[in-house]
Amino acid sequence: MNKVSLLQKFDLVTEYWSPKIVGELNGQQVKLAKFQGEFVWHHHEHEDEAFFVMKGSFRMEFRDKTVELNEGEMIIVPRDVEHRPVADKEVWVMLFEPASTLNTGNVVDDEKTKAVLEKI
Question: What per-residue string of b and e applies to 69-83 under the rule 16 or more CB within 10 Å gives b?
Fold first, then answer.
């Protein structure tokens, strides 16, 4: 039962698209990530994902629309919905998702898939 300084934890995130675990509860993980550039198109068969923008902005692209997200905003992507985050500039994002969630979902990408996440 210790408090967590998200700003201090974000300083420990040094590479893009590499989520770090900062907390766990009820089978869920709270993760921090920095995005820049385009991620891979993917979906998650069994997990919903919540993205909270802590600093900056990014676009969540879906096959039929794009949602712009700014600092202080969030989006929940339901399971089985294909999506791709895109950030023109660095953005800080907090994610809330089941511990079983693979960051690239149904796609394995040698550069972006992170099967084992570091706890910070």
Answer: beeeeebebeeeebb
